Amino acid sequence: MMHKPRIGLYAVYEPPEEGWGEMEAQLDQAQADLEAQGLEVRRAPEAVGSLAACERVAAWLSAEGLEALHALVVTWSFDHYTVEIQQRTALPVAVRSIPGIRSGSLVGGMQLNNLLHELGSEYRLFFGPLGDAGVAAETAHYLWACAIRRRLHGARLGVIGRRTEGMTPTAVDELEILRLFGVRLVNYGLDELLERAAQVDQDAARQAWQAVAVGAAQVLSTQESGVSSARNLLALQELAREQGLSAISIGSYPRCQGTMCLPIALLNQQGLPCGCEGDVNSTLAMLILSQLSDLPVHFGEMLEVDEAANTLVTSHCGCGSPALADGNGYILCPVRLAYSGVSVRFSARSGPVTYMNLVGRQGSYRMCAIEGQAAPTGMVFEGNPLKFVLQTPFRRTWRDVSEFGFGHHWMSAYARAVPVLKEFCQISGILGVFPDLNLVVNREAR
After folding, report:
1. What strands, in cross-sheet order, belong to the sheet with 68-73?
2. What distance in Å separates the CA atoms of residue 328 and residue 169, rounded to the nearest whole number?
């Protein structure tokens, strides 16, 4: 689930220059601007105006567990200060110049911009008056993307079972995921999981089943199926704890229909992104989106489009988190088609939604993301239907889906996340297609 990026804020200045006397008030405003955008700000105990101060601030920032930096250029200042801080912290930096004809902030920011570009450092240059909500949001989007990218590096994604036969686009490039995103895949056979589940205490599984059943609007699955699913859930939880997993992909179709739906739903509810059908790229998409919403991510497919109303319905067979249910609650029932086991059935709640597809392998990773507003819908599909009104005409998205070869699994997050995802693609070097913005990022990466 979402937690705030931790950002290190510091000021750079040169004492002989004009304007630094207002520095504390400017830092107060910069901090307030970032915090209003949902960031956790750790402010350096002093400004950087000398080599000694630079060394102290670099040491302090290095010890704070930060995910990105924000340098406020109060006046023209020596460019090597921020370079040395970056070298010590190995963190990306948002550089902010502010208006003032006599301060030289604009000059200092541009000078630093040139140097960081030549060095190939990860940074972004921003300009505008402090207190400007637009500039603050733009800066925050970049810092959020930097934090997500940092969180991915070193993450472990459990892959259990194989991908679905006949679903070739879900084939995964394990080395490219490690190289490009820093995420290591940890592979397990389905038999290993089932062996572990068989050892789960029956009473513990029964209690876990009752805990979810008591909250359901209706229970149509048998006690036996519920306890069996609960044993799988407890085995997955144990595995995730032992291996420090950040997400899990389960090859659940067709063998596991009705036996892994509930575990997937509840793992997502507990803050561990979990995808099905062995689609690792979609699970990676869920991990990314989970950083941007306090609600679990919805795994689905684009099932129906109403061009006149400019709406689409996305759903899967019953692995959605109960937390996403609308006011009618959720039903525990046998999964469609197989008519066995336990699935979680509900129509999804209303709210702002970002819809995202992530596909690719070596040299071809690409993301498409659009925004919309989830609207009330009935049980139009026996699973977890989520209906939303698109922000731009559906045909624009369909044009891009066709041109850039996007796939069939689309993840939904209850958040307006496109600006952050755009920045994420930019800094990750992958193709990003954003129909709402009529924008393609890193087209050369195609």
Report:
1. 40-43, 6-12, 68-73, 93-97, 123-127
2. 35
Co-location of 287 and 409 in the same domain: yes
pLDDT of residue 1: 63
User: How many independent structural domains does the chain possess?
Assistant: 2
Q: From the CB of residue 6, how many other CB atoms can be counted at a distance below 10 Å?
A: 17
State whether 31 and 54 are in the same domain: yes
pLDDT at res. 255: 78
**Residue pair 292/151 in contact by the 8 Å Cβ criterion:** no
Counted residue by residue, the chain has a size of 446
Check whether residue 160 and residue 148 sit in a common domain: no
Sign of the C-alpha dihedral computed for residues 317, 321, 322 and 323 taken in this order? negative
The number of beta carbons lying within 10 Å of the beta carbon of residue 227 is 20
Residue 309: CB atoms within 10 A of its CB come to: 12
pLDDT in tens, 177-218: 999 999 999 999 999 999 999 999 999 999 999 999 999 999
- Please give the Cα distance from 443 to 446 (Å, whole number): 6
pLDDT above 70 coverage of the chain, percent: 99
Interatomic CA distance for residues 155 and 323, integer angstroms: 25
Last residue of a domain, one of 125, 152, 179: 152
The whole domain housing 135 covers 6-152
Average pLDDT, the chain: 96
Q: Looking at the structure, do residues 118 and 164 belong to the same domain, yes or no?
A: no
Helix, strand, coil percentages (3-state) for the chain, rounded to 5, are 40, 25, 35
Q: Are residues 185 and 126 part of one domain? A: no
Could you say which of 97, 118, 152 is where a domain stops? 152
Residue 1 belongs to some domain of the structure: no
Residues of the chain with pLDDT under 70: 1, 252, 446
Q: Which residues neighbour 169 within 8 Å (Cβ) at sequence distance 6 or greater?
A: 359, 407, 408
Cβ atoms 258, 341 nearer than 8 A: yes
Distance CA 212, CA 198 (A): 20
Overall pTM surpassing 0.85 (yes/no)? yes
